[in-house]
Design a protein that fits this description.
Shape: globular
Distance between the termini: 81 Å
Number of helices: 1
């Protein structure tokens, strides 16, 4: 008759606890031109980097899309040298981005 033996090993179970879900950065505030060609904004501690979007006011009013003109900027300012076409105006918007996604572009004329 053969004998068998059993070894009992402890079972480790890892259970994820419910916590706050990660979210992208909020709206970027303080967007302004510091001189004729430098766009600057306030830092958002939740953002790893920033994206800059541009579009003409007329195109935006018609529901046209903004174009991303710079992305993954780690500073809180960037060169924005393009002048608007004659008879028009450009809008510049900044979003924050993190591993959790891209934040909103803002909902008010102040950019917030």
């Amino acid at each position: 008759m053969s004998r068998t033996s059993s070894i009992v090993l402890p079972l480790l179970v890892s259970v994820a606890t419910a916590g706050a879900l990660a979210a992208p950065p909020g709206e970027i505030s303080g967007v302004t031109f510091t001189d004729a060609t430098t766009l600057a904004w306030s830092a958002d501690p939740a953002a790893d980097d920033y994206n800059i979007y541009r579009g003409t006011i007329a195109a935006i009013a018609r529901g046209g899309e903004l174009r991303c003109v710079a992305d993954e900027i780690v500073a809180t300012s960037a060169d924005a040298p393009q002048l608007p076409p004659p008879g028009s105006a450009l809008a510049w918007l900044v979003s924050g981005e993190s591993a959790d996604g891209e934040g909103p572009l803002g909902t008010a004329t102040s950019g917030a």
